[in-house]
Design brief:
This protein has 222 residues and is of the alpha/beta class. It contains eight helices and seven strands. The N and C termini lie far apart (56 Å).
Length: 222
């Protein structure tokens, strides 16, 4: 089997490539991830994957295409399941590339992470396989997640702190997305939540000369 392995980043590729090498699978890595934002993060992840490929002597194909507007538009068209767009876009590209360049099957390192929507990835990959007439090679690498982490740490690879898109970055870092809870005390939880909402509705004075305005849910200057 000649396998094209889509890779989302270096750390997630560590364990799958190790296993495939041990199994004697002839594979080539493919980097195509225009959903990763901002562009600086896109470059960090590409650099980590290149570092892995160089250290382990893996073949790697890189596509730096970065249609930012199209990606964000695609995610916004499916706000309830924005990940579906990212998976579908990358699996279709990988499947077509596999067909166009003589690979007999394709797969993705996205199947390694327990933080990804596994079934949605499989669904997108199977649909792409059927559309382009190529085999989808499925393996569930999630049970060995920690082993992959250990390999990436030993190699000193850059490890990203969020999934990839601009929305996942926001969800990872913005304070207003974090929910305040108190274990086994619903009354206190409600009180804290109510107090937080009330506080966020008023301007906050940080210093004598700095005032932080409350966040708005919509653009007010249309």
């Amino acid at each position: 089997m000649k396998l094209l392995l889509h890779a989302c980043c270096g750390p997630c590729a560590c364990y799958p490539t190790k296993v495939l090498s041990e199994q004697g699978v002839d594979f080539t890595l493919l980097y195509y991830n225009p959903n990763i934002h901002p562009y600086k993060e896109f470059k960090h992840r590409l650099s980590a994957l290149r570092e892995l490929a160089e250290k382990q002597d893996y073949r790697l194909v890189i596509d730096k295409t970065y249609p930012l507007e199209e990606c964000v538009k695609g995610m916004l068209e499916e706000p309830e399941v924005r990940c579906a767009f990212c998976y579908r876009m990358r699996m279709r590209y990988t499947a077509k590339f596999a067909v166009d360049h003589g690979f007999s099957a394709f797969s993705t390192t996205l199947l390694y992470s327990p933080y990804q929507k596994h079934e949605l990835i499989v669904q997108a990959a199977k649909a792409a396989a059927e559309e382009f007439g190529v085999e989808f090679f499925y393996q569930d690498w999630r049970p060995h997640y920690q082993e992959g982490v250990d390999i990436s740490l030993a190699l000193g690879l850059y490890r990203q702190p969020y999934c990839g898109c601009v929305f996942s970055e926001r969800d990872r870092y913005m304070e207003w997305k974090k929910q305040i809870t108190v274990t086994d005390d619903a009354h206190n939880t409600n009180s804290i939540a109510a107090g937080t909402a009330e506080a966020e509705s008023k301007p906050v004075r940080i210093t004598k000369n700095i005032i932080q305005l409350p966040k708005q849910d919509t653009i007010l200057y249309k």
